[in-house]
Each structure stands twice: as structure tokens, then as C-alpha cells.
């Protein structure tokens, strides 16, 4: 499906009546005369009003009723006599998608919108309000992300310098499983906004996530530094932790020193470093037992560099 | 199949996912309690079946680009997991079926594995 239509349908399920209705609508009283109504509709350029008495909606009167009245002679009388009594109403908290079904099923052109708790009139819903509301929200929703992506993805083109690079840094807390992976998920979004090719962003995100998990599992704290240039994305992740005594052994698939609680969380099966290696174009792992570990990974964004 | 058809096949309950999102077509599945195992797939699976019910299920899905995560064996799902799924736009479901039974039903319905990265 065209993503724009998908977004429209999503909005129908997200938006509520209160989000888009025309508030403080023009109302009439049942004792006002039909001749007054004619002037109101003409002067305010509207096609109907809710009829309100003692703060409650008692009816609805439309231009169709006015035409009917005019064609049957136009003898002046109170609105009360010509209005549709006890009209169907919508509640402010209903989903937009439900109201569209109301328009379809009833054939009416407008519905008073009332507060479910006290029955007071809040606004009026017309097909025009739906269209305006949807277009407004759609434009807003699409624009926000588009603008962000546009701005970010043109940074390298818009700025001129001999060398261009962006650094983004995150701190990682050891043993904090609630936050584990947050930096990597945020970074994936950043890369998308920067216009990095999805495959490159995907590989960096996976490598970064595994590396972040390693810091959370084994170390007390760590720092993740991402560097983005027009040629490559890279990550340097340094931690203060126990270090790795035998890197060769640690790289072996299936080898792990993780405690049982780590395995229960779905990690620590000796696959992390392997996954990182498979995703990276270059990987450099250095460690000093008792001090910490530094992992560097690079992924090249330009084909020519891959064969260097 | 669509995610809503998948939910039906697994008698699963959607914990997060708009009607729109449930209409997405899905083809590939990865089933594991090990997140690294799922991250090792070359092609991103559309759906993850897992016995794990931690925040990492949603984070792994977001990082790997997985559309929906199904938690098997009726494991209790904390509200903050549903909350995170909402933030990250991941469809989240829960089924009482075992990992084996859930995988079998999806295989029988034509779903296939995502290739492993070598």
C-alpha cells in the first residue's frame, strides 16, 4: 500500500472526535424563529446548527429543513417546529473511524458532539471537518519526520569542509538490563535520519547492540562513540570491566563466560562477538584484564572502499 | 499471511498493534529464546517467536527491523514491555502455545525461516 494512504488509515484509528471537531459551534434556540435561522445560515455561511435549550442539545436544524419550510410557504414559526428532534450525537472520545461509519449509515451531514459525562455540547462534526482534520494531521505527521530526515541527510552536502565527520556518544551503565540496547536502537534511528543506506544502518545497529549488551553484562560502565563520515560509519566502545584474558578464545563461536542470569535474559551464548564480526568490515578488539576492553568496528559506506 | 491471520493461527492475543499494523504481510520467522541467535539472521525475519519476555525482545526487534514479536508459553508480559513496543512501533503478541507448537503451526501455514548470516 502507498505509505501515505497507510498513514491516513492509521490516523483514522488514532484520532478521536475531539481532536478535529469545530469547537464552539454556532447554535440556535428552539424558540428562535425560522426567519432568524435563514439570516444566521446566510450571514455565517453555514449549512445547519445544533438546537440547544438549557445547555442540552434538543435538535438539529439544517439548510434542508429551511428549504422545506420555504417551499411550503415560509410562514414564520419557531425552529422547534421544524427541527429534527433528539438527533444522533457523537461523543468527543469516539474514534474517528467510528464516526465515518455514522456518516455512511445515517446519511446525515452533521452531528452534534457532546461530552459523555455531562451531555454538554462541545462541537459539531461535519464531513468537511473530517477532511480538514485528516489533512492537517497528515501533513503534520509526515512533515515532522520528513523534515528531520531531510535536514540530517543533507548535513554532509550542506556543510563544506575538507574533512567532515559527526560524532555521537552514549554512556552505557553496567548490569542495567532495562536500559540495555537503548543506545543502539536510538542510533539506528539516527542513522536512518542521516540517510545512511538501510543495509549499513542495519549492520551497524546489530553490531552495536551486541557490543552494548557485552558492556551491560560484563562491565561496570562504558562509552560508545559513533563516528559518521561520508565514507564510513564506525563505533568505538570502551568499557571499564574485567577485560578479556584470551581474545582468541573469546572469539570462538559458543565460548562464553556469562553467568546463568545472563543466559536467562537471552544472551551469553558465545555468539555476540561472532555476530559483530559478521556485520563489520573491520573489527579490532583489545583488552587488558582487570582494566577494560576497547572494541572498534568499521563499516564502509562506499563500495570502492570495501576492496581497499 | 497477514499478522492478524498469524495471530489467529496461534490463538494469540495482540498486546500492541494497530489494525493497520496487523494488516502487514509477513513471510519469514525466527524462533529462539536467544536474542543473539535471532540477530545472526542474514535476512531480517518478519516475526520473532520467543519464550523470553524481557525488554530485550522489543529492543532486538527494533535493532533487527523485526515487525512483530510473539511471546510463547503464555509468559506474563509486563506493562513496560508493551509500553516499549508502542514506542518502538513493534507489534507484540502473546500465545499460550509452546515454541515448538507455535513454530509448527506457522510452518504448516507456509511461513519460512530467515537465512542465517555466515
Give a brief description:
The complex is a heterodimer of chains A (about 300) and B (about 120). Chain A has helices at about 5-15, 15-20, 35-45, 65-70, 95-105, 125-155, 155-160, 180-195, 200-220, 245-250, 260-265, 270-280, 305; strands at about 20-25, 50-55, 55-60, 85, 90, 110-115, 120-125, 165-175, 220-230, 230-240, 280-290, 290-300. Chain A has about 300 residues and is α+β, with helices and mostly antiparallel strands.
CATH homologous group name of the largest domain in chain A:
Histidine kinase-like ATPase, C-terminal domain
Task: Please indicate the count of domains of chain A.
Answer: 2
Number of strands of chain A: 12
The CATH architecture designation of the largest domain in chain A is: 2-Layer Sandwich
Radius of gyration of chain B in whole Å, from Cα?
12 Å
Task: Using the coordinates shown, work out and report the CATH topology of chain B.
Answer: Udp-n-acetylmuramoylalanyl-d-glutamate--2,6- Diaminopimelate Ligase, Chain: A, domain 1
